[in-house]
Amino acid sequence: MKKDFNTRLCNDLFPEMPQSFMDGLLNAARKAEGTQNAQMHDTPVKPKTARRFPVRKILTGAAAAVLVAACVVIAVFAPGIGRNKHGAVDPAAYNPLRGRWTLTEVEQNGETVDPETIGLQMDMNFSEDGSVTVTTVTGGAEGQYVYRYTLTDNAVELTAESGEIPVLPASGVYDPETNTLRFANEDGDGAVIFSRVLNKQTLTGIWKQTRREHSVDPSPLDGFDYDYLKWEKEQTWEEDAKPQPWYLEFTADGRMYYFLYAPDGGVQGNQSAPYTISGNTLQWSGWTLRYEAETDTICWILWDRREYYERVPEIEIDDPYREKVSELRQKYPEYFDLYATPRLKVIVWQMAEGSYSCALVPGSDLRKEAEIGIESRGTTIEEMRMILSTYYEARDCNIEPEQVEVVPFHNPISSYWYEIDDAYKGMVRWLITGTSFESDDPLYSLLPKGAYGGDPPAHYNFRVSEVCDIDGDGTFETCMLTKGPTSGLFTFTLTAYHNGTAVYRNTFNTANGYLSIQRKKQGLWLINYDPENLSGKPQGRYTGTVENGRFVLTDRETGETMEYWGLADPHWNMN
Amino acid sequence: MRSRAEDTWFSREVEALAPTMFRVAFALLRNRTDCEDAAQNAVLKAYEKLDTLRERRYFKTWMIRILKNECVNLMKANKPTVSYDAQPETGYEMTVPDLDLNRAFDTLSPDERFAITLYYYEGFSTREIAALCGVADGTIRSRLTRAREALREQLSEKEAMQ
Fold it and tell me: How far apart are CA A249 and CA A251, in angstroms?
């Protein structure tokens, strides 16, 4: 009988797993465990029966201590366990014991024993109100026991209610670095160690630094309780620091905890601050987490307001750009979602003067350019740049403009002839990726290169080219920033190309700085950063549009327009 | 130091995950030998990094993520993907249930094959697959749609020719 498509898809795609696959996996697991054990143990592991833990000894030893401690602790803290040492309730104080802990190690006679191997199981659940429930699964002491507890300078004191059997020593020590609780036996020859059970939603987002924001996708709040939300990231905000893991935790009591881990795993620093959630924004001291609900890809933006706020221009919703990309996806599906690792190849040919066509293939495509050119549909340069932007933004392929190979060639179907020399190759590459083009012609030198004492730090991600609809006519242009033609005066040139042909160009005179452009919903932003203070407030932020055939840059604070240089002929040096 | 109990737990989890790992690796690599290499490397790495897994209930997604990375590494190493047509008989002893479907599946991109496998065979939601791949939910949905359309189209063409 003929199966329908879904049944085929769900049942008939994969062969049976061969037994050799399972054998290989189990061998690998055994090999890994064997290697680890060989590194850890110089002597063979003792059989389970050799390990005996004197549970009752600890229990009886603890009993007397608990009774004494109970009297003392109850006398001191009686009316209000859960209050601080001054007697006042401090609901915002961080209680690191809150939550569940489980017995993970037992020490006896200098030997560490896995509690499971001796059948010992014990959990502790610390609540906010100062009570702790101990659940034991041991011979003769099974059950649940409720105590009161206090925490003072990492010293934990337990007191049993009247009539309760004490199952733990009265005093313990909380170690914030290892997140463990240790109860030593009264006679000093044993201890039980509890570890925190992370009863939290764990998220590991993929973070990417784009335009000086840090983004994570998908939304970490989506579908998770706000009670325990944490991120893990292996990078700090510090510019020059080596990657270090850090950890954020948002707790139900309205506080955020931040821990910076040292390379050896210890806690190097931490801080805590209250946080608030309002709409799609999470805020705490100096930090803002914003959920961009209106963009078509869910994106979280996290930045340190102290360092970055002034440097991040408004995040605009790229409706026209994204709509265009969507159209292109329909029009040229063959150029989207290609297997792009480790690189992509763009084939470029000219059918006539100022008429470029581009095709995109994976870097591993070994066909000759002519073969690709004949078989492919050509896009314009702007279309190709938009298609490429989907790869730059995709979190799972990590393609950067530098990894795009641009290959100009003569398409045999065209009779138009042009010289393909190094300058031409550089220019085409520059038009498509905005990278790696140096020329003696100052118009074609990228602005930050070789000027003002070298390139700005890479992670600031200055953009000197951007595709946007600069003149509002519904088509997209490639806008490029270049150095101006002067040496003593700071000038720069802004040029808009349409498929390789310059359509608008103007030179401006402004304060010396690093310039960066960024696409807006209509037009672009131009931001001028002080080279001496890149983290500070920009020297100028301008909106860029085209009016009457020339670029107009308007200061968004003062409303003044930026001066043109020289005669400001809108068609100066267009060809 | 890792306890024996943890070792036992790890082995059991790996054993339980083996069929899933096979399908995921096979979807990406389409070659049994490579699947075994990638899966074994993933197991070794997972054990080595087990301390970084903060919650055991995420073991499955964590392991699949490691396995996917291993598969991508193998693909990067320029190992040619061998299609069903090109499989030598001696090195390919498995019987595939639906050869036409598998040939069509071969033509999908690795990302699409990965999404199809997790969605249809492992019961992952598009949101979970998106989190695993580090892409937006919509991206996974569109990959699934494209993949389904491509498969359906190729199968109908094939059946029309028959």
Answer: 6
User: For A148-162, A213-227, A472-486, B101-115, which range has the lowest pLDDT when averaged over its residues?
Assistant: A213-227
* Cβ neighbours of B102 in A, within 8 Å: 13
Shared domain for A59 and A187, answered yes or no, is: yes
Instruction: Give pLDDT tens digits for B69-92.
Output: 888 888 777 555 444 444 443 334
Q: Under DSSP, is residue A214 helix (H, G, I), strand (E, B) or coil?
A: strand
Sheet architecture: strand order including A213-217: A206-210, A213-217, A299-304, A287-292, A281-284, A267-278, A255-261, A246-250, A229-233
* Pairwise pLDDT comparison (A286 vs A25), residue with the higher score: A25
For residues A501 and A355, the answer to whether their CB atoms sit within 8 Å is no
What is the residue range of A258's domain? 206-311
Question: 3-class DSSP state for residue A71?
Answer: helix
pLDDT band at A220 (very low <50, low <70, confident <90, very high): very low
Strand-pair category, A465-468 with A477-483 = antiparallel
Query: Do B87 and B7 reside in the same domain of the chain?
Result: yes
- Specify whether A167 is located in the same domain as A223: no
Range of the domain at B58: 1-92
Residue A29 in any domain: the answer is no
Tally of domains within chain A: 4
Residues A180 and A214 in one domain: no
CB A101 within 8 A of CB A89: no
Cα separation of A296 and A287, whole Å?
24
Per residue in A307-353, pLDDT (tens digit) is 222 223 333 445 677 778 888 988 998 898 777 666 889 999 988 87
Distance from CA of B107 to the nearest CA of A (A): 12
Closest alpha carbon to A523 in A459, A472, A574: A472
Residues A64 and A169 in one domain: yes
A407/A447 same-domain check: no
Q: Could you give the angle at which helices B59-76 and B4-29 cross, rounded to 10 degrees?
A: 50
Mean pLDDT value across chain A:
65
Do A374 and A393 belong to one domain? yes
Where does a domain end: A263, A281, A311? A311
Residue A64 in this model has a pLDDT that exceeds 80:
no
Question: Residue type at A90?
Answer: D
Most confident range (mean pLDDT) of A182-191, A510-519, B109-118 is B109-118
Instruction: Please judge whether A13 and B152 are an interchain contact, meaning their C-beta atoms are less than 8 angstroms apart.
Output: no
Cα separation, B96 vs B33, in Å, equals 16
Residue of A296, A333, A339 lying closest to B138 (CB–CB): A296
- Together in a domain, B106 and B149: yes
Examine the fold and report which residue of A287, A311, A335 is the final residue of a domain before the chain moves on.
A311
Which of A229-233, A390-394, A434-438 is predicted most confidently? A390-394
Question: Do residues A357 and A409 both lie within one domain?
Answer: yes
* Positive or negative: CA dihedral A377, A381, A386, A387: positive
Cβ–Cβ gap A17/B97 under 8 Å: no
Instruction: Pick the last residue of a domain from B43, B73, B92.
Output: B92
**Lowest-pLDDT range of A333-347, A351-365, A546-560:** A333-347
DSSP secondary structure string for all residues of A537-554: --SEEEEEEEETTEEEEE
Q: Can you read off the two tokens belonging to residue A176?
A: 């914030």
Which residues of chain A from 294 to 323 reach within 8 Å of chain B, CB to CB?
Answer: 296-298
Helix (H, G, I), strand (E, B) or coil at B32: helix
